[in-house]
Amino acid sequence: MGLLDSLGQLLNNNGTILKILFMLLQQSGGLENLLSKLQRGNDSTKHAVGSWVSTGSNAQITVPELESALGSENIDQVADQTGMERNELLSLVAQNLPQFIDQLTPDGSVNHNSHALVSQAQEKLDVPRL
């Protein structure tokens, strides 16, 4: 089973959520940069991000923590691109980002295989370039 199949099942085959998550990933400059942005937050955010990458259970992130880490401008850009309300977008991302990152780091780390999988998934989903 491929990455998109796994992510699709995990996110109830909601292509919109997948596109949004891949847009945020792209906008951040890749998986490492997204994780780095998120880890610059408070201790709770750092713990949450660490749990997503590790092989254990995934901690949740709050909407305010997510907004602080990603930045209002970035969130507004994705909201504009998708036509979603800002708060709805933030809520969906906060709810689904832990599982998304967990799937992109199945062995507990970011590696070259993760990058190839992300690129293939973005092309297949036709994720708009931001």
Structural class: mainly alpha
N→C terminal distance? 29 Å
What is the β-strand count? Answer: 0
Number of helical segments? Answer: 8
Shape: globular
Strand content: under 5%
Q: Mean pLDDT score, rounded? A: 82
Low-confidence stretches: none
Write the H/E string, N to C.
HHHHHHHH
- Rg is 13 Å
Largest sheet data: none
Instruction: Give the helix level as a range of percent.
Output: over 70%
Write the layout of secondary structure elements.
Layout: H1 3-10, H2 15-27, H3 31-39, H4 43-53, H5 63-70, H6 72-82, H7 86-104, H8 112-125
Helix pairs in contact: 1-7, 2-6, 2-7, 2-8, 3-5, 4-7
Organism: Deinococcus roseus
InterPro entries: YidB, YidB-like
Pfam family, one: YidB
Describe the structure in brief:
The chain is an all-alpha fold. It is built from 8 helices and no strands. It has helices at residues 3-10, 15-27, 31-39, 43-53, 63-70, 72-82, 86-104, 112-125.
Describe the protein's architecture and organization.
With 130 residues, this protein is mostly helical. Helices cover 72% and strands 0% of the residues. It contains 8 helices and no strands. Helix 1 (3-10) crosses helix 7 (86-104) and helix 2 (15-27) packs across helix 8 (112-125). The longest helix has 19 residues, at 86-104. It is globular. The mean pLDDT is 82.
